[in-house]
Amino acid sequence: MSSPRRANRGPAAAAENRVALLAAAKATFVEHGLDAPLNQIARAAGVGQGSLYRHFPTREAIILAVFDENLGQLEAMVAKVDSTLDELLAEMFDQIVDVAVLFELFRFADSSDPRLAEIIGRLYALLDEKLGDDSSRGSIRRGVTAEDIFLSVGMLAGLLNKTPEQERPSVAKKCRALLLRALCD
Amino acid sequence: MSSPRRANRGPAAAAENRVALLAAAKATFVEHGLDAPLNQIARAAGVGQGSLYRHFPTREAIILAVFDENLGQLEAMVAKVDSTLDELLAEMFDQIVDVAVLFELFRFADSSDPRLAEIIGRLYALLDEKLGDDSSRGSIRRGVTAEDIFLSVGMLAGLLNKTPEQERPSVAKKCRALLLRALCD
Amino acid sequence: MSSPRRANRGPAAAAENRVALLAAAKATFVEHGLDAPLNQIARAAGVGQGSLYRHFPTREAIILAVFDENLGQLEAMVAKVDSTLDELLAEMFDQIVDVAVLFELFRFADSSDPRLAEIIGRLYALLDEKLGDDSSRGSIRRGVTAEDIFLSVGMLAGLLNKTPEQERPSVAKKCRALLLRALCD
Amino acid sequence: MSSPRRANRGPAAAAENRVALLAAAKATFVEHGLDAPLNQIARAAGVGQGSLYRHFPTREAIILAVFDENLGQLEAMVAKVDSTLDELLAEMFDQIVDVAVLFELFRFADSSDPRLAEIIGRLYALLDEKLGDDSSRGSIRRGVTAEDIFLSVGMLAGLLNKTPEQERPSVAKKCRALLLRALCD
DNA sequence: TATGAATGAGCCTTCATTCAT
DNA sequence: CATGAATGAAGGCTCATTCAT
Predict the structure, then answer these.
(1) Which residues are CB-contacts of A169 (< 8 A; sequence separation ≥ 6)?
(2) Domains in chain B: how many in total?
(3) Mean pLDDT score of chain D, rounded to an integer?
(4) Which of A151, B78, B179, C163 gets the most CB atoms within 10 Å of its CB?
């Protein structure tokens, strides 16, 4: 019997699969929310259910991984440009319109989860580095902490997640103005 | 027989049931989010599944009812005291810590239920009334619109919904400071 | 408290209610089939659920009553006109397009049910009366029994019940031609 | 533990399961009609509820599959013997006593499922092939169309579906006589 | 190790039936 | 006797998770 089942590409495919899963997960989460059926992710990735579970044993695990990956991109960006916090914030505010859903992560991950703590730690480090240096602080006023920025971004994300797709850009713009006023002189 | 069917308390229980359902719904939503199983609400209210559906034919209907009830309390408060917007905002920020989940209601914004529009209208009216009058604007700066306040509250609620129970007061306090800075002179 | 509940018109309304229920039942069955929710019938009749149950304790009971009533109309028609069987058949074939659903009755009523037996008996009597008399037999061939006619009508009804609304007239016409060929010389 | 979850027999069981489901579905439909609970079919097949839905995502799908299978048997029979339409009809009339319920399938006639159209097409082709050739038409009179036969079979099925099990053979016999008279010279 | 079918728990919803008023 | 709210059993369907191959 010739099974129509996708060929088992063996262990070598593991890395490929992981990448495909992360991409599929991000797309699926953005489109259907963090409660999207997991099999939808597996299907979109062209990967078996079981493989998804092997790579990410829980829903939380894959969400964390996607978030982590996105944060990685942000870090890379920061590392490359000699940017001020203004520019970094602008970039974050821009990107968040599309991936706000990932911030729902906090509903899932227990805040004591070491992976989450690690991710938050990296974000804080990123921000503290800029805040601590007058030349890179941009127009952010003294006294603003990394946590303040973190909370601001979180609030924006929180609202965007309740906002219908097409209204997001306009809502984001108005909120950004409010938040900058809160954070800048 | 194993299952002693709950006594049929008759039509007289209708009003009681409605109240019990609303209370149970609020508690359940606060604890488990707006996607909480409806049967859990019915059980918590000590009411049959069917009665829940009779009183609130859709999930949206019961969410709206709970929200409406809370909004009513807010309006009552405003009506009583000759309050400034500062006080109104303080009240809202206080209350929202406990019922932030209700703001998830706006996920249903594309709903055809006219009551949602009505509720939003009432909220705006509440705010516009205060904003339009210099003597009641408090320390809110000129140029702030009802929408700005609405968005601020929405952002706060959005973040609180992702925040674990015990951290909410502290998060709320910090966010409140940020938002007031955004809204006041 | 003024109860918005329909006034209890007392025992006097019993007869009225029964009539309203039968009419509503017929309309509801025709439109939604014999499995239509009973509360739909009560509502259409403007009558409480309980009253429906008082008049017709089972679904079968109300179906039988509707069927019976329709048969009564047929009998009345036969009694009035000095009709041949041809005309009677034509009438039945005509009417059945609209009320074929009532023949689903046989799926519900146990054939040993005395009420059903009584109804069938009346139908047979109606037919036998015409068949037995050469002058009223019309073009129906000798040898055809009341049962043959009964089965023919039943078959037609059976098919019509599976036929989408708008195709019924055309299907009925073709089947009628076939059945007449079976029953006539 | 109280519920010894059925062993997961693995993907290899897929084919077996499909067969078991079809058999169970046929039996269940015959006994309880096309509205029989699907979980009853799953249980009868010794298969999980989810597997039923995997194989047949809708009720219509499984009905179609059962019907298709039966039609396949009919076609096979026709293909083998060099039969006349008389014989084909006899076979159909015989078989229909047991599986009349499947003809309820046509309640789904407005379905968008192309397989239904395909099935009807095959039935018509089967009949047209015989009708078009004088040597195979048997005693069926000229002028009879495939549709006439289709309608006849449908009418018989419709009636049998309302007929209690034990009376079906006798009813079928009488109706068959009537219908043959309608279709033959 | 990858695959995807199997499994059943669990939520949603409808509706027949009962019964306090 | 009429009313219509209350009740929960029952069936539909989805999806997280397991596991034979």
Answers:
(1) A97
(2) 2
(3) 86
(4) B179
